[in-house]
């Protein structure tokens, strides 16, 4: 099963400067370990949420606003794809992600349902 792993990092890791050199190196090593884990396809790095533009179409008019309509702590900071045997395996990997351990969260969504040839 393929899962899309959405990283809700927001400002969770912005306080890295206050961490020790060893803690910062561990966060970097954790990111590298997850990127190299079997079944992981890393996503493309994303810019900061405050640099985003949100697009909506209402009444045939295209409307744009600066940034997302969410609190910074909950803004998507990145994503990756994981091919795993089951949801438990996806949860195990998500729990190792630095964002999940430092005030952020990882949202797991199954993806094959939407991309399968058998989907309605």
TrEMBL record:
Pfam families: YCII (PF03795)
UniProt cross-references to SUPFAM superfamilies, sorted A to Z: Dimeric alpha+beta barrel (SSF54909)
PANTHER family xrefs: BLL7171 PROTEIN, BLL7171 PROTEIN-RELATED
Organism field: Actinomadura luzonensis
Domain YCII-related: 1-110
Entry similarity comment: Belongs to the YciI family.
Taxonomic lineage: Bacteria, Bacillati, Actinomycetota, Actinomycetes, Streptosporangiales
UniProt protein name: YciI family protein
């Amino acid at each position: 099963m393929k899962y899309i792993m959405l990283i809700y990092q927001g400002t969770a890791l912005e306080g890295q400067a206050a961490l020790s050199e060893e803690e910062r190196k561990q966060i970097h090593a954790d990111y590298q370990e997850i990127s190299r884990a079997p079944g992981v396809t890393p996503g493309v790095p994303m810019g900061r949420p405050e640099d985003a533009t949100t697009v909506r179409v209402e009444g045939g008019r295209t409307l744009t606003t600066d940034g997302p309509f969410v609190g910074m702590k909950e803004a998507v900071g990145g994503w990756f794809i994981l091919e795993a045997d089951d949801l438990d395996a996806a949860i195990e990997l998500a729990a190792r992600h630095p964002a999940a351990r430092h005030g952020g969260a990882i949202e797991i969504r199954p993806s094959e349902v939407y991309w399968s040839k058998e989907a309605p």
